[in-house]
Design goal:
Order of helices and strands: EHHEEHHHEEEEHEEHEEEEEHHHEE
Number of helices: 10
Structural class: alpha+beta
Strand content: 15-25%
Oligomer: single chain
Number of strands: 16
Radius of gyration: 27 Å
Helix content: 25-40%
Length: 449
């Protein structure tokens, strides 16, 4: 089979990266990301951004190239040539835009970003504890995600054609070295193709099943269809149920999503759906499993909530959004306001994260309190399964333990075979009783009198 090569026009002259951009590229390739598979998430996110932009453009302008083309991402592999191609029908780029967007990372300020990137890495390695700059805006401003491709790429070629009718196609090519080339190219359709020649130690990414797995993990809820392979089967589910209005979601939809999320055959004991605009914009869908025991098919390896930023998975198990004693809660949290680090692999602790934790924790307490009030039999089932965690919370929660107290249940001398809340016990207290005594034991033998 003929070897895939980059067609370079004889008149094309290499363009040198700026010195600070070259340094930044080294950081992006070698230091910034902890998982190589992240490159696919970043390229799909870029493609989604391009599709969103052309969709917005066509709201007021139908005089564009390929106005009826499906807005989608298509991924194909060539196992013989060890190449991956990520294609979109988005806004596209001109030759000048390829140079601006891919050749210089940022026309101005790359040196400043380099300093911020180095500071971010220092923070994550424990060498520094604070920074004066927020990295949230820098991700979009500098578009660094594209360069994650060089973690797995021997070379990258980008072929793009703008949505503008009078623009021609162009290509950008780079091996990750000190220069890149830009030249005219052949492409009839609007959009961008990113062709990656895989390194020898990254050739497992030329397997369709491997790519599907990565997409389902990181990009399952991108708002445009993602097709993989020549048969063009859609991989992603696309609809993020947690971003819908609770009024639009049927009860069975919640159960179905829970089963997809956890691989639990049994329905959840309860769920909570949050859509919040202030003080932060966030969406959440939280579940309590029917049993605290994980089934043999459970995909959950540890406690924590799935954390998304604009429907893209950032962390599989985030432990900073709930107190430790509520670790049995499962679900997803998605926010527009997350203070991400440069690589979008972790979240910086700050005011936004504290606000999210406060909102989510309060919602869990409200949901459990409502269950206790409206479905006391179900709450007894919850208590018998999760009482140990709530009791742990009473011991651990130093700042605000009050929301936990109404959730506690006890056996009493008046009703030794039933569970009573503290309020119910107080209502039955004798007129002059001033003290409450509690005999410690296991859950079945503790007694309040």
């Amino acid at each position: 089979t003929e070897k895939v090569q980059e067609p370079v026009n004889g008149d094309s002259q290499p363009i040198a990266f700026k010195a600070e951009t070259r340094q930044l590229l080294d950081i992006l390739i070698h230091s910034l990301y902890t998982e190589r598979e992240i490159f696919l998430r970043e390229l799909i996110s870029n493609a989604s951004d391009a599709l969103t932009r052309v969709d917005f453009e066509m709201l007021t302008n139908r005089d564009v190239l390929d106005p009826d083309a499906e807005l989608a991402v298509r991924i194909t592999v060539d196992e013989e040539q060890d190449t991956i191609t990520i294609s979109d029908t988005g806004i596209g780029m001109t030759e000048a835009e390829l140079i601006t967007n891919l050749g210089t990372i940022a026309q101005s300020g790359a040196r400043d970003f380099l300093a911020v990137a180095k500071e971010s890495i220092k923070q994550e390695s424990g060498q520094s504890n604070q920074t004066d700059l927020s990295l949230t805006d820098l991700i979009g401003q500098f578009g660094v995600g594209f360069y994650s491709a060089f973690m797995v790429a021997e070379w990258v070629r980008v072929v793009s054609r703008s949505y503008r009718l009078d623009e021609k196609a162009a290509s950008w090519y780079c091996t990750g070295a000190d220069t890149f080339t830009v030249q005219p190219a052949e492409k009839e359709a609007r959009g961008t193709d990113v062709i990656i020649k895989l390194k020898e130690d990254a050739q497992d990414y030329a397997k369709e099943h491997r790519l599907r797995s990565i997409i389902r993990r990181h990009s399952d809820f991108i708002p445009f269809p993602i097709y993989v392979g020549d048969d063009q089967q859609q991989v992603n589910r696309q609809t993020a149920i947690w971003r819908q209005s609770p009024r639009e979601v049927e009860e069975q939809d919640y159960v179905d999503f829970y089963k997809q999320l956890t691989l639990d055959y049994e329905p959840p004991m309860t769920h909570a759906h949050m859509v919040v605009d202030a003080p932060v914009q966030m969406y959440a869908l939280l579940y309590v499993a029917g049993s605290p025991e994980r089934s043999m098919f459970s995909v959950r390896r540890e406690d924590g909530l799935k954390l998304f930023a604009r429907k893209v998975l950032i962390q599989e198990y985030n432990k900073d959004l709930l107190p430790e004693y509520l670790g049995f809660v499962q679900g997803v949290v998605d926010s527009e306001d997350l203070p991400l680090n440069v690589s979008r692999e972790s979240v910086q602790s700050n005011r936004v994260m504290n606000q999210l934790k406060k909102l989510i924790t309060a919602k869990v307490f409200d949901t459990l309190s409502e269950m206790a009030e409206k479905e006391p039999e179900k709450y007894v089932q919850f208590w018998e399964g999760y009482s140990r965690q709530l009791k742990q919370g009473v011991a651990m929660e130093q700042l605000n333990p009050e929301p936990l107290h109404p959730l506690l249940r006890f056996h009493t001398t008046a009703k030794p075979d039933e569970w009573s809340s503290l309020d119910e016990y107080v209502e039955r207290m004798k007129e002059n009783q001033e003290d409450i005594y509690y005999i410690m034991g296991d859950d079945e033998h503790s007694l309040m009198y």
